[in-house]
Amino acid sequence: MIKFKENKGLGLLEVMISLFLLSFGVIGGFAVIQKIVQFSSVNSSRLVAYHLAQEGVEVVRNVRDTSRQNHLPFDNDISEASAPIDYRCDQFPCKPQHCEIDDEYLKKENGFYLCTDAGDSDLVFRRVVSVDKAVSGESLEVTAMVEWVEKGNTYQVKTTEILYDWQ
Q: How far apart are the C-alpha atoms of 114 and 107, rounded to whole Å?
């Protein structure tokens, strides 16, 4: 008859190896979760920045369309420049009561981002819009650049659009 050796439990070495493997897996899982949270925060800011860049282009488009509605040349209130802008602007560059040349930072107030200077510590986004007129005089190249600093890294998004004299 064959005798089987009785298993009395796990040895010390086996327990230590299993605890090492378990702790290695848990620490790895936490590292992955930390990276996901970090990327989520940056992606959230990137989404806001893309919308702010598009808003900069849309404000210039609105100035163009307003000129046309008033039976003026499409680029009547638009000059070649690189300047800050917010939704209240009715010409480009903006009138000083809305955005001054040093007001590149945007501060969120009542759900809107408004031009302000760099004196406030909780400012995140900085937007500058550039307009170049075509030689032919029939189009405008509008470029909006939004920049922000998050967790020690500087990020930037840029969008460019050509606006034509559509009438």
A: 5
Number of independent structural domains in the chain? 1
Task: Give SS3 for 94.
Answer: coil
Of all residues in the chain, the percent with pLDDT exceeding 70 is 86
Cα separation, 128 vs 158, in Å, equals: 10
Rounded Cα gap, residues 146 and 54, in angstroms: 10
Decide: 85 and 115 in contact? Cβ < 8 Å.
yes
Determine which of 27-36, 101-110, 116-125, 153-162 has the lowest per-residue pLDDT on average.
116-125
pTM (2 d.p.) = 0.74
Calpha distance 73→71 (Å, rounded):
7
- The pLDDT assigned to 12 comes to 80
Neighbours of 146 (CB within 10 A): 28
d(CA 110, CA 127): 19
Q: Which domain holds residue 78?
A: 12-164
Angle at 56 between CA 146 and CA 76, to 5 degrees: 140
Do the domain assignments include residue 88?
yes
